[in-house]
Amino acid sequence: MNETRRGTMTIVLQSLQLGTLVIGVAGVFLTMGRKDARLEVNTEEIGELREIASDLVKASVESTATNHDQDRQLAELRNRIARLEPTR
Questions:
Q1: pLDDT band at 69, cuts 50/70/90?
Q2: DSSP string spanning 10-64?
């Protein structure tokens, strides 16, 4: 009977060790999956930020060009007004 009890205890302990090992391995895979998912989300967000930065640079360049055109038009208007003023 003592040996039967010892055999049962061994089986129970081995089963508990196996269960613990399976849970540990599952935890590792779960952690790796979460990290991979987070990396993928971060990569997508970085790509979106890159596009936003590109659009901001384009808008800034267009704004500068528009300002330059407006400055040129204002200078032309000042020249026309200056030509008209002496004749009065």
A1: confident
A2: HHHHHHHHHHHHHHHHHHHHHHHHHHHHHHHHHHHHHHHHHHHHHHHHHHHHHHH
